[in-house]
Design a protein that fits this description.
Elements lengths: L5 E8 L2 E10 L4 H13 L4 E12 L1 H16 L3 E5 L3 H6 L8 E3 L2 H5 L2 H17 L5 H62 L8 H6 L1
Parallel strand pairs: 2-3, 3-4, 4-5
Antiparallel strand pairs: 1-2
Helix pairs in contact: 1-2
Length: 211
Amino acid sequence: MKSEALNFTIETKNDTLWFFLSGQFHSEQVPSLKEKIISLIEDGNKRIVFDLENVNYIDEAAVSMFVYLVNLMMGKQGKILFVFKNEIVTKAFEQYKNIFSIFPDSKSIYSGGLFSRLKQKSKAFRKKTGIRLSLPVAIILLVTLLGWILTLIFIIQSQSNHIHVQEKEIAELTKINKKMEIEIKELKERLKPLEQLGIFKEKDNNSQKSK
């Protein structure tokens, strides 16, 4: 029977559920597998990986099931990933490759690096907005954004240094001003005896102006 053609095992790695499928995936297997996966998603699993590398046949009903599950998981702020590179599954998934996160092997999921993450973000952006954002464009946008951020940081740092210099100059001028006030006060104290003897008399500015 076709319903007995599909084999699968489930493993847990860290916070991820891994489904390893092999054999032929016909529509007869869809209802039971779909129900099981939905149950796992409803239980709170936020990250599921389907390894389809050993699947040698998959029909449209099975692919449609994965489309449904991906959308369901996205609604719960989770993620479904796929691992395969065989020709049969690749051809079946061709029209949905822009909404699926597909990796050639399990190692690439963990070591995809920046470019892989940019590619996945580009797919999500394209799905939400309908705007095609290629990887080179995404890299250019990222570099441009980083340039803006670095420029902003440089401007802020320059302004901060300038303000610091001005504050230092103001503090120095304030110190000089206080010192001059003290010296003027001391000088007036020294002149008081001369004023009392009539030797020195401080001129009245108002009287000078009237003259």
